[in-house]
Amino acid sequence: MKPMQPVRGTSDLMPKQKSQMNAVVETATLIANRYGFQDMETPIFEFTEVFSRPLGASSDVVAKETYSFEDRGGTSLTLRPEGTASVMRALISNGLTQSLPQKFFYAGPMFRYERPQKGRMRLFHQFGCEFIGSYNPLADAEIIGCAAMILSDLGVLDKCVLHLNSLGDTKSRDDYRHALITYLSDYKHLLSQDSKRRLDENPLRILDSKAVEDQQIVENAPRLPEFLTPQATEHFDQLTAALDTAEIDWHLDPTLVRGLDYYSHTAFEFITQALGSQGTVLGGGRYDGLSATLGGPDIGAVGFAAGIERLALLVDQTDEFIYDVGVILADDSASSVGFAFANKLRSCGLKVDIPLAGQVGKKLKRAALVGCSLCIIIGETEIKTDTIQVKIMATGEQKQLTQIEVVEFAQKFFEQKQESI
Ligand code: HAM
Questions:
Q1: Is 281 part of any domain?
Q2: pLDDT per residue over 379-405, tens digit each?
Q3: What CATH number corresponds to the domain at position 104?
Q4: Of 314, 341, 367, which residue is a domain's last?
């Protein structure tokens, strides 16, 4: 039988990757808390309309990427492809629309049926922050500031460029949409198949098409910033003034439209060149109309989400798991005592390995390989004489101690080691 493999687009998070991802989420949680974003969690699946309405039927995510299925009761459910719609649904379901603003942080798995490649998975993880209940451009600045500080603390901000655009209010977008359709219609025969379809459904998405034939046409297309209403311009100017004062670098990108339909005004992405074609590590924007598409009142809101796998790839982390102590069993008669000893040391906070294969020499080698700085050697003789051999791995120095002395010695040894770092 052929060995079983994980489903295409999914992968096992083995200890090294998992610990890198945990470190990313830990940093993000810490910084998000400083801004007042509180941790929350929504279910992994929702009624299909929770996503189809706000994300837009013509968005790629809804049109071709959702994992939707009927449950045994015939209800259409969808595995969440992103967190924002669920968070807004949760705010409404929990009766919080009268207690605004609310600031949420979340982290967890998302599902999109995309074409897998490096940095693009069908099952991936995001963390995100949502600032719900304000139309003030300072809320946009807070969101972007929080994202930048997380990337900075992860040590990757200097590998990213913040692309920023304004999609304006409804009037700005309607005017622009009209101008764009007029311009693109003249070139319809030259557009890619996908963009021909988008011309009627969602022409703004043509702006960030990756097809070379589309990009040439888009180059001379009318630009969104020229169609912003005075109010939309004012919102954008206030945001950029706040970013400039806080010395957060940004780059105006008039073709940045984002892939989900719910955005208005601010849209932004932190993009790196270091990950190949999947270089967007974090993206977000304002979504003032989302609440109403879910049956809630009009609520101003802005947020972002980041790809945890992408950030983990970018973070320069070489930390391997390292043990403190190796318990070396010289013969089988020492197993029980050795096991009890290892546990005693673990309860003092030390990381202890008991190498199980081979003779003493091979066990010592394994202990050195997994980073043990101290080994204790126990055999029949030691048990009879109530002694234990202790080996300091860096110097090779060996000592004979009593069982009680060993625990104290190990604790002191690691305290001193910690102080000398
Ligand atoms: P998004 O741009 O679709 O936005 O996703 C945010 C981030 O998730 C991306 O920048 C990327 O790092 C990561 N990501 C997306 N798809 C994949 C994939 N297939 N494999 C690996 N990583 C991926 C949203 O999801 C919005 N909910 C963000 C938001 C929050 N807007 C307002 N609030």
A1: yes
A2: 999 889 989 999 999 999 999 999 889
A3: 3.30.930.10
A4: 314
Looking at the DSSP assignment, which residues form a beta bridge with residue 109? 125
pTM (predicted TM-score): 0.88
For residues 266 and 257, give the distance between their C-alpha atoms in angstroms, rounded to a whole number.
Answer: 10
Helices (H), 223-307: 230-245, 290-293
Most informative mutation of 10, 62, 124 for ligand 1 (most atoms within 8 A of CB): 124
Ligand 1 test: best mutation among 82, 167, 291, 304, most atoms within 8 Å of CB?
82
Tell me how many domains the chain contains.
Answer: 2
Residues 289 and 347 reside in one and the same domain: no
The span from the CA of 268 to the CA of 132, in Å, is: 17
The ligand 1 atom at the shortest distance from the C-alpha of residue 120 is 20
259 CA → ligand 1 middle, Å: 9
**pLDDT tens-place string over residues 30-84:** 999 999 999 999 999 999 999 998 888 778 888 889 999 999 999 999 999 999 9
Looking at the fold, whether 245 and 388 belong to one and the same domain comes out as no
What's the rounded Cα separation, in Å, for the pair 21 and 46?
A: 25
